[in-house]
Prior knowledge:
The chain is of the alpha+beta class. It has helices spanning 17-36, 59-63, 83-92, 136-152, 167-176, 182-190, 192-206, 211-221, 226-230, 236-254, 300-303, 318-327, 349-361, 375-384, 418-425, and strands at 40-41, 47-49, 67-69, 75-78, 101-105, 108-110, 122-131, 160-166, 261-263, 277-283, 292-296, 311-317, 338-343, 366-367, 387-392, 403-407, 413-416.
Amino acid sequence: MSISIPQLPKGTRDFYPEAERIQNYIFDTWRRVAESFAYEEYEGPMFEHLELYTGKSGEEIVSQLYNFKDKGDREIALRPEMTPTLARLVIQKARELKKPFKWFSMPRLFRYEKAQKGRLREFFQLNMDIIGTESIYAEADLMAAIATMLRKFGLKDGEFAIGVSSRKLLATYLEEIGAPNPALVYPVLDRRLKIGPEAFAKALADAGLTEDQVKKLDDFMSCKSIEEVKTKVHSENATAALAEIEDLFATLTAAGYGECVNLDLSIVRGLAYYTGIVFEVFDKGKSMRAIAGGGRYDSLTEKLGGERIPGVGFGMGDVVLADLLAEHKLLPSPKQSVDFYIASFTNDMKKVFETAQAFRAGGNTVAHPLAAMKMGKQLDQANYQGAKIVVYVDGSKAAAGEFEYKDMRTGEMFVGNSEAIVERLKA
Ligand code: HAM
């Protein structure tokens, strides 16, 4: 009888050290940029009560939940997104938290999606959110952080774009053209470019829109400039929503991010809780899935039973981002690298351990053999582990308090004390 070996679950990844090194590079960059914008890190549980998501997050995400009953008969779901958890945290301490505040998190998320390029069933997502202000400068802060982050990863302006739309603007336009059931219309609008013009028209007709209304909506969503939109909308609310977008763009332009943002009214976003500005970040040719998506959600805490506290934020997944960086050859080498490898001709392991410890105490990364072996084998290991300098604890040319050592980057041999070796590392 043959026993089948265990298989990796579909849509998940193993992170062998080389992959984990790349992953940590992404996490480190996310964290560094978020902290440079003065966001504070938070976390929550990986599972929540199912009802935190049902009815609030939107149909699509609820249909993708990993949920189960626990041993106490409670309905539980693995978190598919962080925003409901964040809203729960905010409601619990609504009085104590000094608003506005800026928080970030890098949760592991779970969605039962059709696994495909850019979409997995388990992934990581940087979340940055600002809670407690309705000011458009919160959106500006988030978008500046996104652009800074993508630049930090090495992407150039023009290689990515933050497309901006407004649920408020869309809602007033739907009202102006007399479209019924906005709640039924949004999910269709969100799929507009995915399903093609015919299916789009049919789905809107099913939602109760006339042919004329469908045409108007299609034209509206194709608008490329604020000027063009101004010729189509006239209500006071629409004018206010447009003025807000203009202010956002002017602010970002003043800060040097003008090339990174553009108006894109085809963006609607699938999630149900957005109330204002919505945005998505794409690669230049929109050849990949969205790198990030977010928006303003001013009534989520209220929907969850708390008081009304405005919020705005985004999620940036690790999967599309890593694909894009790989395409632009912007990922660092996945190879291990250590400062020192401590070698011994006589396999004097006590001396090896003692010397390794002394170098580690100085803040260096240090490797060494774990069994007696020939020098050739030790050097192989030093190479494999990416050692910059090999230190020989018992080289015959060294005097007391000194070592022979080899700079693996240049192949040169030296003799000197530990200070000289550490100095050489910096060369
Ligand atoms: P979302 O659009 O569902 O928004 O996800 C944001 C980003 O997460 C996507 O653009 C994509 O990069 C990544 N992502 C989503 N699903 C997957 C998947 N199955 N596999 C790989 N990556 C994925 C939200 O989740 C909102 N909660 C974001 C937010 C925060 N809004 C306000 N604050």
